[in-house]
Design goal:
mainly alpha, 0% strand
Length: 103
């Protein structure tokens, strides 16, 4: 298999299992990619606006909404589940310091 290199370790697993692959095949219409920096920027936005400390994986959805999905979803109602705070304070602080302002 192909190893995915990302700060969001839960989004780059070393393998897929039959059940998870079947669910994605049956229910996911599109997959977009975001950079590590876009996730870091998402972490900063979530911390600033929602006052939540999250790991990179939940920031991936924010990064996708602000990046590759921005035009397609403009003006539409969008729900985004943000969960996952498995991050240590030092790493979180490092990401906050590296986050660029986004709107």
């Amino acid at each position: 298999g192909v190893k995915v290199s990302t700060i969001a370790d839960s989004l780059g697993p070393p393998l897929h299992l039959p059940l998870s692959f079947a669910l994605v095949r049956d229910y996911v219409d599109e997959i977009v990619t975001v950079s590590d920096q876009a996730m870091i920027d998402g972490i900063g936005l979530i911390a600033r606006d929602l006052k939540l400390a999250v790991e990179p994986a939940p920031a991936a959805g924010v990064a996708a909404l602000l990046g590759p999905l921005r035009r397609a979803l403009a003006g539409k109602r969008v729900g985004l589940v943000i969960c996952g705070a498995n991050i240590d304070p030092v790493t979180f602080g490092r990401y906050l310091a590296a986050a660029r302002p986004v709107s």
